[in-house]
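Two records follow; treat each independently.
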Amino acid sequence: MLPSSTRTLRIRISGMICAACATQIEDALIKLDGVDRVLVSLPLERATVIYNSDCLTPNDVEEAVQQAGYVASVGNRTTQENMELLLRSEQLQTLRST
């Protein structure tokens, strides 16, 4: 059973262009005291962080991503942002299949 101070945070990230970018962000986040697990998704431009809220805040996570050289924001995407992401994903699929 997880402690009551365990939280899950989804953070939007832009500026990633390859798997190495995602790995760099994962490495930066897992080094933070209180972070238990990190999953960075390049196609979704998002990181999911499981952390101890007694040790750090969502702003700490956001700042760590920014210090790694990427743009980060906590919160949900707008409908327009979701549509743009879907379009980019479709374009990537087209490029991969040609």
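The next record belongs to a different protein.
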Amino acid sequence: MGPLFKLVLELQNTSLDQPSANLFITFQCNIKIYQIERNYIPVSHLCPGCVYTFSTKVNCVAHVNVSDYIKVHILRENETSPLITAVIYMPSSEAVF
């Protein structure tokens, strides 16, 4: 097992008066490189203008010095298309033997 990263996400509802509810965060990555501790994070409510912080641990499981990206999807409950997707490029990590 390689280095452990903490992935910190900040979400903000930029609407002036419409709260967002029943959302969730999911992650997509190459499982030969990364293992994500919490692959599903429920987001019950986002009030307009407030910043909410969520985090998960990411373990690099590759045995070579490699880096890749992790996609973060924000979805509404019972919908299949993301409201927004972010692509996070992870730093290179040296394998520990």
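Discussion point: The first strand starts at residue 4 and ends at 12. How would you locate this feature using only the token line?
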